[in-house]
Design a protein that fits this description.
mainly alpha, MetI-like fold, 14 helices, 0% strand, ABC transporter permease subunit, transport, cell membrane, transmembrane
Length: 293
């Protein structure tokens, strides 16, 4: 599998990239059944989400998006939502926007589902935190375009590789914010729970997580924004959606298409940011602090 060459200290050359590529290809070929299962699962989840978002008439979906905005925040956000999504439809980017939204929701949902347990584990164990931290540093400093290469090797071109690359790129803030939020919970409150005989699991579920929820939601917001920022890059490995529109505008020097695709991405980002922020404000600890103030 690995090539063996003599090493000259006066003319150093380490084939690190070749060896990593050999390792990744060996893993993919050895565990092809696992990768096929992951690909089928991700494609199934994406197809289901895309069908839910794209099948209804766009006016129905705008009404649903506005109702969600009104329910979590206010009628003002609902009005902004109607105007924003109607603009997306008016510039003929509705189908591409729903494709992008489906991909972002699947990728961000899986990134959150993976990052929160890891963050809790890191908050509970200093050794896990020390092991995870350099990995997160590596994941956050690596140029996101590089993630597309192993994604193509493992899953080929298409939406699956884009989702996997997005998950890897978007996970670190979720882990960091969750660990920070758990560690910042007042130790005296935790000690009081222990004094009353609560188990560690019950303390986590009923004390630490509720108190840490605003910070955890801030991390989830960052995960979603990073996932949305990947939509243009994933277009380079065959994912459709608004990213493909922006990429096409670059290759064809089509300014109007680039503006329309970029504007639709911004509208989606604002909507998701405001909705997630509103959900964070509805956390019991935030409402209690408002009553106290």
């Amino acid at each position: 599998m690995f090539r063996t060459e003599s090493f000259d200290p006066l003319d150093p050359r380490i084939d690190l990239g070749d060896r990593i590529e050999d390792g990744i290809r060996w893993i993919v070929s050895t565990f092809s059944v696992v990768f096929d299962g992951i690909q089928n699962g991700l494609e199934g989840a994406f197809d289901a989400m895309d069908t839910v978002l794209e099948t209804p008439h766009f006016l129905i979906m705008i009404a649903l998006f506005a109702a969600l905005a009104w329910g979590v925040r206010s009628w003002k956000l609902a009005v902004v939502t109607v105007v924003g999504f109607y603009i997306i439809a008016a510039v003929d980017q509705w189908s591409e926007a729903m494709y992008t939204l489906a991909m972002v929701l699947v990728a961000a949902g899986l990134a959150v589902a993976l990052s929160i347990p890891i963050g809790i584990w890191a908050a509970k164990s200093s050794s896990v935190s020390n092991a995870v931290r350099p990995v997160l540093d590596f994941m956050q400093t690596m140029p996101p375009l590089v993630y597309l290469v192993p994604a193509i090797v493992a899953f080929g071109v298409g939406v699956t590789g884009g989702i996997v690359a997005t998950i890897v790129f978007a996970m670190p803030p979720g882990v960091r914010f969750t660990e920070l939020a758990i560690r910042q919970v007042d130790a005296e409150v935790v000690e009081a729970g222990l004094a009353f005989g609560s188990t560690p699991r019950r303390i986590l579920r009923q004390i630490q997580l509720p108190l840490a929820m605003p910070t955890i939601m801030a991390g989830i917001n960052q995960v979603i924004m990073l996932a949305l920022s990947m939509v243009v890059l994933t277009a380079f490995i065959g994912a459709h959606g608004l990213g493909r529109e922006v990429r096409s505008s670059l290759t064809r020097v089509d300014l109007s298409l680039g503006v329309e695709g970029g504007l639709a991405i911004v509208i989606l980002a604002i909507y998701l940011d405001r909705v997630v922020a509103a959900l964070a404000d509805r956390a019991p600890v935030v409402r209690a602090s408002r009553v106290r103030d």
